[in-house]
Structures are given as C-alpha cells and as structure tokens.
Amino acid sequence: MNYAYWLANIPGIGNRTIQRLLAQAGSARELYFLEEKGLRALKGFGEKEIRAIVESRGKETEPAYQTMLAKGISFLSYEDDEYPEKLRNIPDAPYGLYIRGRLPENGKKTVAIVGARRCSEYGRAVARRLGEQLAKCGVCVISGLAAGIDSAGHRGALRGGGMTCAVLGCGVDLCYPVSNRELYYDVLEEGGIVSEYSPGTQPLPRFFPARNRIIAGLSDVVVVVEAKSRSGSLITADHALEQGREIYAVPGRMDDALSAGCNMLIRQGAGMIVSVEDFLKELSSGTFPGTCPDSFEKLLLEKEEYLVYSCVDLRPKTVEELLLETKLSMPELAAVLFALMRRGFITETFKNCYIRRL
Fold first, then answer.
1. 179 and 271 belong to one structural domain
2. pLDDT at 122 over 50
3. Of the four listed, 102, 162, 214, 269, which is most buried by Cβ atoms within 10 Å?
4. What is the pLDDT of residues 269-313, one digit of tens each?
C-alpha cells in the first residue's frame, strides 16, 4: 500500500494539516498505524481531523492508486527521495505531486515565464523568444499552460528543442484551458505536467493562486513578461520573493495596463530585461554560471552579423546610421541585414529602418 497516497487523499485534510501531522507522527505509514488513542494525543487537532483519518483507513485506496498508475500518472510525496529539491524548503511545500511525463532533474536550471492571459502580440513574441533561447541553452522552462504568455513560453521552449513543464490548477489528466489541448500533449512529450491536485480535480478559481507557489518553487528565476497591477503573475512573483528566487520583468509603456505590474516590479528592485541576449549573458555570469556562455554569439554565423546586431536597438535605425556605425560597405550591410531578418533577430519597421527583436 502507498501510505503517502492514502494520506494525500484523506477528505478534509489539506496540505498544511498534513505537514502538522507528520511533524508529530513522523511518516504517513506511522500515522496510518497509529491507534486512535495515539491520534488523540497529537496536539492541535480536533475531532473532525481525527474522524477523517480513522474513517479513511477503512476505505481501500490501492485500486484507485493502481488505476492512476495505469493511466501514466505517477505520484511523489515529500517523503520520497525523488521529490524535487527546489520545492522541499519553500513555505507550504506540497506534500504530494501528481505527474504525467517527467519533472526536471534535480540540479537542472529552470526559469519560469509567466504573464497575462490576454497579452499583446508583442508580449507573446517576447515570451516565445525567451522560451526558445533558454531552451537552446539547456534551461527548462516552467509555466502554467494558461492562454497568452504562459502558452508562448511553453511553445518557445518546444521550438528551441528543450524541456518544458506545466503546473496545473486542476488534475493532470485534464487540459485547462481546453483550447490548449495540442500544446498540452506537446508539453507532455518533451517534459511534464504536474499538479498537487488528484486526477479528476476540476479547475476551480481558488486552486490557481496556490499552484503559483509551485511554479515559483520549481524555478531558479521567475520572469514576468506582461502583467496588470493586480494579476496572478504578481502572486507568482510574491511567492518567488518569499522563496528567495530571482525575479525579472520586461518593461513596458507607462500608459499600458499590461505593463503596470512589470513596471512596478522593476521599481521594487526586479531585474529588467531589455534584450534576450543580455538576459542570457546575465544569467550565465550570475545565476547559471557556465550554462550558456557566449550563447548569443554562437547563434550568429559571422562576426559582421554580431557587429550589425549590436548597433541595432529598440529605436529604429536607418541604413545610413548603420553604415556610419559599422563601417561596412552597402552590399555587406545589406547581406547582413537580410540574414538577421531571416533568422528573426531584427525586423524592418518601415523601409530601410530596422529595430531589434526581443
């Protein structure tokens, strides 16, 4: 019998109650065999909790557990050695995790990409590019499979040929939102789906703020791409701050509601992402030393391409300005600009004016 699975599925016994029980009983197995007299001797528990534990012992959980395994869903408890190390020491760590696919191995570098469901096309492009370049550097992208920024981060990681994991606010056997069904299976193929809620649990609103602590907890760094002044992404950032994680945000226009949350985070001390390659370099020199050294330069085929790219910024520059700054000939510059546009590093905003793509 899997005693941890039994404990995680006692009706009316939540995560914090489980933690308090184990602090006194020692393990799920010891709690299972503890006589009723011993249960009543535990401090801080009322008749309701005692009754729930006693009555649950008479219910056979093994068939449900085996059925779950047959569906390709595994269960990890806090008592298992394979439990993610990043989650162990966070406040209110989930006792049980239900997993389809696989989680990142302990020690693997992870970055969460979160943001608004109703995002702008700019925000979607930034999240997708961040996910792709992080994946190319061997970093696992964590998010929540929600519409908008979350989905873009997952898709970027998949496009980059890397691993990505989704943390759900429902059972792992349910795809929410339903419109992301194709993405759900793509994530499952290249990474994993995880939840603290048992299979079949419906996506209720109260579950999503709680799942955000797991998104932050599985990550070394949390990146907020777009967020309103009150949003679930800021809840994730709050959890990340509480857990001692690094927080980065993408700045936006001061009159844009989708930028209010990000700009506020930056004002409060979060790292600011002004370009993807600079962010990668910062991670490589700090949080992830040696993970992605000179990652951007390796993506470029020729030194002239890097020279031109370094001269292009978030303000459109004309061909004349670039000729002056790079000292290249017109044919050389034209060839490099075409190559950079083809690879998605720059875009032509209007005729002969170029801007850097994040």
1. yes
2. yes
3. 214
4. 999 998 888 898 888 877 787 666 444 444 444 678 878 888 887
- Taking the complete model, does pTM exceed 0.90, yes or no? no
- Chain segment 164-222, per-residue pLDDT in tens: 999 999 999 999 999 999 999 999 999 999 999 999 999 999 999 999 999 999 999 99
| Three-class secondary structure assignment of the chain | CCHHHHHHCCCCCCHHHHHHHHHHHCCHHHHHHCCHHHHHHCCCCCHHHHHHHHHHCCCCCHHHHHHHHHCCEEEEECCCCCCCHHHHCCCCCCCEEEEEECCCCCCCCEEEEECCCCCCHHHHHHHHHHHHHHHHCCCEEEECCCCCHHHHHHHHHHHCCCCEEEECCCCCCCCCCHHHHHHHHHHHHHCEEEECCCCCCCCCCCHHHHHHHHHHHCCCEEEECCCCCCCHHHHHHHHHHHHCCEEEECCCCCCCHHHHHHHHHHHCCCEECCCHHHHHHHHHHCCCCCCCCCHHHHHCCCHHHHHHHHHCCCCCEEHHHHHHHHCCCHHHHHHHHHHHHHCCCEEEEECCEEEECC
In a domain, 216, yes or no: yes
Domain-located, residue 99: no
